[in-house]
Amino acid sequence: MFSGRTRSQLLVASPPLDDPNFDRSVVYVIDHNDDGAIGVIINRPLADPDLDPISRWMDSLTEPPVVFNGGPVDPAALIALGVTEHSTTLDIDGAVQIADRVWSIDLAGDPALIAPHFAGVRIFSGYAGWSSGQLEAEIDAGGWIVVTAETNDLFGNQPDGLWRRVLQRQPPPVSWLANAPSDVNLN
Prior knowledge:
The protein is of the alpha+beta class.
């Protein structure tokens, strides 16, 4: 169940989702409160991103070392998330903890001072956003399946098959959706 003020869960697009921005997407929820929700799509690496603004962070990126399409809202906005090796309560200058091992990183900070605290960093261009009550309505309408996030979901090196893998690890009948054809009309 998805409740207000919940973060660090995954939204898995139910097949078929008519919006091409989110079809077969997996969204990591960064924050969810009374004002709405924000998250990033974690399974869409960009083929040809503009790396100039973040070139100094390239050595810190988790495999694959590319920028990800975080969502359709404000593609010029860059969001960086980092993962620590272990749970920590350290005060890391230039980063804010958003989950057990997941942190939001200020890309304006010095990577030489910030990056050593993290086992990996992932950068997203744009984000997914919902106004107050909008996400809850989409979940109630069956557009999203809400599941618990695992750290490897967000920072794993094989994002392309993530949608299917996340569904497969759920109990039936949700796990059965992993085998849904891309075009249900061809079934």
